[in-house]
Specification:
The protein is of the alpha/beta class and about 260 residues long. The protein is built from 7 helices and 15 strands. The strands form 4 sheets. It has a 5-stranded parallel beta sheet with strand order 2-1-3-4-5.
């Protein structure tokens, strides 16, 4: 078997001593390769555009551009696995809101860093496994179709892996009632729970079966099996009412999309 490539790490901190300590602690792990160090958010944004980074250790308070602003500038879907490192623990909640994997306080302790690296490697391994699984499924579908002389059938997502607090969970697509746009994220509504997925609504729509999930508004995708009734308000817009009583906006294109699938 080919030897596994080390994880490419970027350290971002405006304090030289903090970078030096983290560099020293990370150098103990043979599966880690530090490929760049940055002193501020502007340098981080540039480095992420130039380098393939697997893991980012990101200070929150840096001159000019903060760690949270880096997320806004790069876009959450384009961020590597990120661990915030800061001297101030009041940012913990905000760090997990942007779906950082972990949150370390300075001075970073070796035992705490080792535990974080375990989580980092598990996250990257799970992402790689899911990607490989989907690629194999697509290849198998193409080969089967070629043998049968028919066009390949599109396989749509059956589940999503989402970050939920301190853990990752699978969300079955069939359980999703509706999906709401949230900037670079999509909010999956499942019963009384909601999960943030690091994909835009446009990106997410491509992976969903269009006969089951319809974009009824620019900011809403709905599971048609969950629709109880449709309310029209003139010719241009209206709303859909879900079985749970949730009222969602419906645009004219959304109404036309619902009509289209009713005839298929």
């Amino acid at each position: 078997m080919p030897e596994a490539k080390p994880l490419r790490v970027l350290i971002a901190d405006d304090e030289p001593l903090a970078r030096e300590r983290l560099r020293f602690l990370l150098s103990r792990d043979e599966e880690i390769e530090i490929v760049a160090e940055c002193r501020n958010g502007r340098e981080v944004v540039a480095a992420l555009q130039e380098e393939k980074i697997d893991v980012l250790f990101l200070d929150i308070q840096m001159p000019g551009t903060s760690g949270f602003e880096v997320f806004d500038l790069v876009g959450p879907p384009n961020m590597p696995v990120t661990v915030f490192v800061t001297a101030h623990n009041q940012y913990a909640v905000q760090a997990f809101e942007v779906h950082a994997l972990d949150y370390l306080t300075k001075p970073v302790e070796p035992e705490r860093l080792e535990a974080t690296l375990v989580h980092v490697k598990e996250r990257i391994a799970s992402q790689a496994a899911l990607l490989t699984h989907e690629q194999l499924k697509q290849l198998q579908s193409v080969l089967t179709s070629l043998e049968g002389g028919i066009a390949p059938r599109r396989d749509y997502a059956k589940r999503f892996l989402v970050h939920n607090g301190t853990k990752d969970v699978f969300v079955n697509v069939n359980d999703i009632e509706w999906i709401e746009a949230a900037d670079y994220y999509s909010c999956l509504h499942v019963g009384a729970k909601s999960f943030m997925l690091r994909e835009t609504l446009k990106q997410l729509a491509i992976s969903l079966d269009p006969h089951r999930f319809v974009r009824v508004h620019r900011s809403v995708i709905v599971n048609v099996d969950q629709i109880r009734e449709i309310v029209r308000d003139g010719q241009s817009e209206g709303s859909v009412v879900l079985k749970n009583g949730q009222l969602l906006k419906m645009s004219k294109p959304g109404w036309q999309s619902l009509l289209a699938i009713s005839h298929t």
